[in-house]
Amino acid sequence: MNELHRELVNVPPVKLTVENVSKTFHVRRQTVRALENVSLTVQEGEFVCLVGPSGCGKTTLLNIIAGLEQPDSGRVLADGVPVTGPGRDRMVMFQESALFPWLDVLGNVMFGLKLKPNLRHAERREVAKFYLQLVGLEKFVDANIHELSGGMKQRVALARSLAPNPSVLLMDEPFGALDALTREQLYGDIQRIWEKRRKTIVFVTHNVREAACLGDRVMLFSPRPGRIREEFRVELPRPRDINSVELAKHTAEITRALKQHLSSAAEVAE
Amino acid sequence: MNELHRELVNVPPVKLTVENVSKTFHVRRQTVRALENVSLTVQEGEFVCLVGPSGCGKTTLLNIIAGLEQPDSGRVLADGVPVTGPGRDRMVMFQESALFPWLDVLGNVMFGLKLKPNLRHAERREVAKFYLQLVGLEKFVDANIHELSGGMKQRVALARSLAPNPSVLLMDEPFGALDALTREQLYGDIQRIWEKRRKTIVFVTHNVREAACLGDRVMLFSPRPGRIREEFRVELPRPRDINSVELAKHTAEITRALKQHLSSAAEVAE
Amino acid sequence: APVSAQKVVLRVGHFPNVTHAQALVAHQLTRQGRGWFESRLGAEVVIQWFVYNAGPSAMEAIFARSLDLTYVGPNPALNAHIKSRGEEVRVIAGAARGGAALVVRGDGTIRAPADFRGRRIATPQLGNTQDVACRVWLAAQGFRVTQAGGDVQVVPAANPDHLALFQRGDIAAAWTVETWVSMLEEQAGGKVFVEERDAITTVLASSARFLRERRELARRFVMAHVELTAWLAQNPAEAQKLMQAELLAETRREMPADLLSGAWQRLRFTTDISRAELERLVADAQRVGFLPGKADVSRLVEVP
Amino acid sequence: MKRIAAVGGFFVVLILVWEALVRFGVWSPVLVPSPLSVVQYLVRAIADGSLGQAVLVTMRRLLLGYVVGVAAGLPLGLLNARFKFFQDTLGLIALGLQTLPSICWVPLALLWFGQTEAAMLFVVIMGTLWSVLIATDTGVRHVPPIYIRAARTMGSRRLHTWTRVILPASLPFVVSGMKQGWAFAWRSLMAAEVYVTILTGFGLGHLLHYGRELHAMDQVVAVMLVIIAIGLLADKALFSPWERFLHQRWGTAK
Amino acid sequence: MKRIAAVGGFFVVLILVWEALVRFGVWSPVLVPSPLSVVQYLVRAIADGSLGQAVLVTMRRLLLGYVVGVAAGLPLGLLNARFKFFQDTLGLIALGLQTLPSICWVPLALLWFGQTEAAMLFVVIMGTLWSVLIATDTGVRHVPPIYIRAARTMGSRRLHTWTRVILPASLPFVVSGMKQGWAFAWRSLMAAEVYVTILTGFGLGHLLHYGRELHAMDQVVAVMLVIIAIGLLADKALFSPWERFLHQRWGTAK
Ligand SMILES: Nc1ncnc2c1ncn2[C@@H]1O[C@H](COP(=O)(O)OP(=O)(O)OP(=O)(O)O)[C@@H](O)[C@H]1O
Ligand SMILES: Nc1ncnc2c1ncn2[C@@H]1O[C@H](COP(=O)(O)OP(=O)(O)OP(=O)(O)O)[C@@H](O)[C@H]1O
Ligand SMILES: [Mg+2]
Ligand SMILES: [Mg+2]
Predict the structure, then answer these.
(1) Ligand 1 pocket residue status of A59, Cβ below 6 Å
(2) Which of its termini does chain B have fewer beta carbons within 10 Å around, N or C?
(3) CA-nearest residue of chain D to A170?
């Protein structure tokens, strides 16, 4: 029970530092400057949202923080230690399709836990069930992935990311493919879980309202080359309602800035 | 050119009357009362939205109006004439997957036109191109369906529905699978096209904000049995912005009513 | 060659075997433009020769109406006759006897019939004359043999394969027919263990339909066949030369002259045929389970 | 109920008409055997054990060759997907040999292995191997990279990723390749058994061939029925469980 | 460039080693022909026309039988999908006959049609028909009903719906069924040609068989190479265009 206990207590959140990261892709003689000199600091336990249009390098930045890709220059520090590869302290949650269809719900959540030594099988089950309960799917332990709705799938993915008890959660448009009603529910859930388990979260989206609803800070990206253009601090009380009028004001402000950056980027391009 | 001209002028919109329509489905000894005594009048050129949670019978009602299904009792009148089957005067636009993958964009829009006699091939092409231009896809005439983004697909579907120049447009959650940014654009487009071509539109959604943004009236459905519970008139000037503060107010009002009906329905069920 | 309307086409089958000597000689003469049958049947008759490598396919050709006459072993003929309830095939003359033998390996593993237990014997083809003879002989020695196994395994395998099987020791013996008997003796040190010198080896069979519709032609063909058989007995050297040429043309392999003359010694070319003999063969085939219990062979032999 | 009756009735009438056509001489029994004689042959052949023996021999060859083929095809397919050089050499050879009907191997197999079981096994393996190899290769190529990235963030590495992510993720392809391999192996084994005599045992193909040799159409048709039954059963026993699993887990169409 | 060189090098070395092994007697030329002798046979057989003739005979049989099989399988598949009764009767028979290796039809085909082209065609048709029938049936069943409803609202009815919506919508299934049918037909034709002599023409299978009979391994291997080449070419010529179309239009994986 000792190991199990250690699994279920909160790990201290971690401070992320992105220092002058650049990344270029070469595809068939074309060169895409996905990131250029991006710097960013995420405080311990902070919820930061990255917003920007398609193709501006949000996913690339997230992958570099996760250690799934290496930057061309610059570096990423997690609590002062340079990131060299993926690690269980920084879990990533992708869009819909990253759940493994050959495993059932429990199997998916257990996948990461099985890779943790010094846990017994029963303990792993218990941890997995704990997180499935946290996302409200305790009744769907044995369900197959394709039987779940989009929202349920993302709940499972969330549980899977939480299960290895990482200190950082990196989320790449996790709700992009969901309908509005489901999304609203998940906004509530993610805020509740974040308050409870206190993680450092970097959340990518291109939905401005979503970013304003969830983030402590919203970072605005613009493309070609991918850069952080502006930063907004959202200081509304939590939990925030996506339909609230104050949120609409913040959203309008950020949207205005976004459009301005886009049109200026377009001008530069011309 | 005479025929072509007749194709491209606005047909007068039609008044729809749904009178006491009921429909029950029998599946493996289970009986689902999809619609019970639903009555509804849609004025000529009116834009009516049906909102309600999943499974409350919205699609069923739309199919009955389209003539794709027959009601158990009651009837549907289009300009006073009973509806007995599908007809080109009432076109349906479904969710994403109803475009034909074996045809290119032009082929899809031409499909319905080819079934109209007394048009020459060149005229059909012209009509199709006119509508593709209307939805902003004149450059994608030869594209394959799978190469389009979700938003572009729904634009093609819209053009396909408009091409036979129906007087009624029935839309079943046409934007359900799209992301927020794309959806916002389409809200603008559909309002613009509606103002131009003046159709009678019945629009199904379960997104309350969407309904409030588009509809002259919003009808609230509640499930088991499917019934119209309440009706809201939205009298904001057009084109309406989905992010506007006044819209948020209407949305909040309808959402409140919806939640109340849902919880009372839940109570009844218990 | 195109055939004009008045001409009668006679389609005759045979195998590329020494046991079909009449056909080999006549086929070769046809090739050389001095056809034996053609010259005796008249100018309006055209002979088309077809080469089969086994009895069943020749019989199938008769069923399928693509053959009128064929040289064939007696068993395939009577098998076909009975399976078609006597409707399709007739035996109209004898052709050859003898030439079949059970050859064992010369290494002394088989000294007495009892030594065959658990061994493999190759035969040319399931249900053919030698195959039935082999099974009957084995049954007479007290062995139980089925299509797929038994105390002694009878393995139907193509004649050309016998030599290799024999040399490798995969089979203990082969019940086969000339020229393979001689070949096994000469090239693999085989010893003849059983020889049935008088057994019918080849007959001339006809489709019942042909017999019905062109009886006169059939009669004249049989007469020419009898004449040819007599000629063979008198001119063995010339006959063998013609056969050698024909076998080369059909199999693209040279048949050594000594092998041919060795085989010739064991064969007897005769046109005798008797219903009693064929009925005995039927009884044999029934005993080894290749024919149903009730078989009417009253119409089998029909000499035109 | 009514539907079953209608279908049952159809087949009963079909068989009765067939029997009548043969019995009244419209169809010659050398061309088409009567259903009754087919049943009689079956009863006889089951009773004297020859059918059971033949089924055993055939199934042993098929299963053994198939297992070897799959066991070789899977890892080779993985190698192919993993290393460019393999793909450019072995992959090319596999592509060619997959289109080669494996009956064409018979002459060489007989020379190399003699008229033995090994020759039959070789033909079966050639029927299975390339299909499995190519399907595994394709399957691995079609694994969404996101699965691999997701696994990596959870700490999966090398062998673990191959066995726990890539292989299961390519299962739908692998299973369909195994199915194709089975179909080819089954067909080529039948052809080989019909075509050559193997000293070490008589399979169903031989029985069929003997039926032809003896003009015993009842035997031919009966053996065909047995072959169909085995084909259907094998499909049920070997692939249905996998397909059910795929259907349940992936939600792919049956 | 470097990659092509490496691969080319690999194959050149492979062939040289093979030639050397035969030439220095490590491999007996009766068991494995030398590459040189294979090439020599090919040159000879092309020059004297025997290879061209055999290819012609085989391809004529294959294409004719295949076209007939597809032409029959498509409408039967549609009937099957449309009428419950067909599905319960013909569908059941098709399921059985699809698992039957079509070489098993040879004895009956020879009896019914004699040793003629018709027998070969029958075997090829039996290899094609059932696969196409079943694939068409499955394809039609998998057409999303929403396509049909969309077509109906646009005024499509009965025959128009079948030919303009249902048939094209099931194309991916139909094409894969046609591909399977082709593979089965090709395999069974080879087996049939090897196994029986047809009086009306000598195909590639016969050449292979004669190669074995004459212990001419160069001929055997050369004919195998020709068979592979034809298989690959046929695949390219017959199915690549369809698959490219499917890939372009549907965006399905190649
Ligand atoms: N593996 C890769 N190879 C080549 N180019 C890439 C690769 N990954 C990303 N890119 C390019 O880099 C740019 C940034 O891509 P990225 O996926 O980070 O954008 P994004 O902001 O996540 O977009 P989206 O909102 O569409 O997900 C794009 O132009 C993309 O084409
Ligand atoms: N063809 C059918 N057969 C059986 N039941 C049906 C059928 N169509 C609809 N139903 C049932 O009728 C009810 C109403 O279905 P309908 O599709 O009209 O709902 P909806 O409001 O469109 O839901 P959603 O928002 O999920 O599209 C549901 O309970 C559904 O299960
Ligand atoms: Mg991205
Ligand atoms: Mg619906």
Answers:
(1) yes
(2) C
(3) D153
